[in-house]
Amino acid sequence: MTRNSIDTPVKTPVHAEPRHLPVIVVGGGQAGLSVSYYLKQAGIEHLVLEKHTLTHTWRTQRWDAFCLVTPNWQCALPGHPYRGDDPHGFMRKDEIIAYLDGFIQSVAAPVLEHTAVLSVRPRPQGGYLVTTSRGVFSADQVVVASGGYHTPIVPRMAERLPASIRQIQSADYRNPQDLPDGAVLVVGSGQSGAQIAEDLHLAGRKVVLAVGEAPRCARFYRGRDVVDWLADMKYYDLPVTEHPLREGVRDNTNHYVTGRDGGRDIDLRKFATEGMQLYGVLEDYRDGQLHFAPNLRQSLDDADATYNRINASIDKFIAERGIEAPPASIYTPVWTPESERTTLDPRAAGISTIIWSIGFRPDFSWLEVPVFNGRGYPGHERGVTAHAGLYFLGLPWLHTWGSGRFSGIARDAEYLAGLIAAYGPDAALAA
């Protein structure tokens, strides 16, 4: 694998001017590499700074059986579309890494790996000062492409749980065999939590799942992958400014579904009929008991309502265009909780492991530019902030549904690269 990597440590002598670049890109994942692709095409000098190694997260924060939940044809990184023989399949972890390795090689980005960005702040004369673990740089423009999933969320109640229970975050889960014998409590039923619960369930482990408010969708409906239908319906081209929720859609939890074994629904009710124990949202641990909200029935009903609503929108599309397709259907529950169980003694239940799968918080504490709202999320319009020459790329719903995915990052990166080229260093210094 060829990388245009700069390995010599950068040391800025006292009183020396920092090394200057027209553009610095923070983050060497698919977002940073995508904008590098277009900057290279435009002949714009730049440098990608990566705290670890390129596409590090894909290699280190995915479980062994991980696979894409969107079909392979949606892998459309710039200049590097999916070229395999299974466009409607779902790449597994090793195939995803091979795909990314090919992208890294094709882009050949100028990159400094193992370089942590410690601060980015405006310079009085214009542009930005970028302090890193390997020296100080200045830049006319900065693209923040480090994603929005930085700090795993673990509630403070975790501190009070028995020391005998092993606790890990979803990013650290690898496979059922790595966990101690005993039951496993998975907290959170978003995309990762639901798939990890399934992975454990298929391995024959006793699973207790604290179900959240995540919606779900069908894998296949009326003869096609739901993703194919939604693509034809132009859902993936819908900008956030035209979405009914507007910017509120950025707070939505992803629908749970899987591409495992060729793709299928994840039906938590079916798992319950097979022995998985379902509870509502985990709220607390006290007096030796786990305490859950009495909202399991509502969460399951709401998830199914979303499932049926998406399918109904496909029905309408088919009817309006006179498309020949298998008949419509409505999901009906295969299991309903008889009552809401609100407490559980983890020792009596034999729980040996808790997997926290309740998401991540963004951490942009190193970015010393006032562009954030009260929840630490950057204010921007299609990645462009109110501060001249500062951009974000790769965030969920930055512009469309695919902004944080392989499917839509190219469009966003090309757009920002065009603005960067039009802006120019002279304009930056005059700002």
Structure notes:
There is one protein chain. The protein is an alpha/beta fold. The protein has 2 domains: about 20-150 and about 360-430, FAD/NAD(P)-binding domain (3-Layer(bba) Sandwich), CATH 3.50.50.60; about 150-355, FAD/NAD(P)-binding domain (3-Layer(bba) Sandwich). Helix content is about 25%, strand content about 20%. The protein contains 8 helices and 21 strands. It has helices at about 30-40, 55-60, 95-105, 190-200, 225-230, 270-275, 295-320, 410-430; strands at about 20-25, 45-50, 75, 80, 110, 115-120, 130, 135-145, 150, 165-170, 185, 205-210, 220, 225, 275-280, 280-285, 290, 345, 350-355, 360, 390. The strands form 6 sheets. Strands 1, 2, 5, 6, 7, 8 and 21 form a 7-stranded mixed β-sheet that branches. Strand 6 and strand 7 (about 130) form a beta hairpin. Helix 1 (about 30-40) packs parallel to helix 3 (about 95-105) and helix 1 packs across helix 8. It is globular and about 70 Å long. It starts with 18 loop residues before the first strand and ends with a helix. Residues about 425-430 have low confidence and may be disordered. InterPro entries: Auxin_biosynth/cation_transpt, CHP04046_FMN-dependent, FAD/NAD-bd_sf. Pfam families: Pyr_redox_3. Keywords: Oxidoreductase.
